[in-house]
Design a protein that fits this description.
28% of the residues are buried. This protein is mainly alpha-helical. Strand 1 and strand 2 form a beta hairpin. 73% of the residues lie in helices and 5% in strands. It has 6 helices and 2 strands, in the order ααββαααα. This is DUF962 domain-containing protein. Pfam families: Mpo1-like (PF06127). Keywords: Membrane, Transmembrane, Transmembrane helix.
Amino acid sequence: MRKVDLLFAEYSKSHRNAANKFIHWICVPLIFWTILGSASLIPSPHFCASYFGCVSIISLFVIVLITLFYIRLSLLIAIVMIVIMLLLEHFIYLTNISFGKQSWMVYLSVFVITWIFQFIGHKIEGKKPSFLRDLQFLLIGPIWLLGFILKKTGIKY
């Protein structure tokens, strides 16, 4: 069995309850967005593109590190996640433009609220979050959800 499948199987052990899964489908992408959004607020030069917006060098560095982790598991997942992360960066740019210097409050609020719901989901599940055993599961959550989408569409990762 491939490492990505082993990690998905391990992650799934604490994500079997329907309510917990539902909470994860909402909260995991939002948490991922807040982490990238928070990275975008660290002062650094930005790359800007028409019709897209601007991405900070720090955000690009974070995206590269995450992508390297995903490439080790699955090239297809890594490519799809690059596209997703760049789409998230577009929404981050819009958030930063809309809220200006208060953007950090948006990211922090969403981060805290979504983590509260994540822990509620795990309380319902009756099992501790996977990342408490191994921090790499913080990056497995988003691709675990992507894995469901790829399987439903018949795409092998």
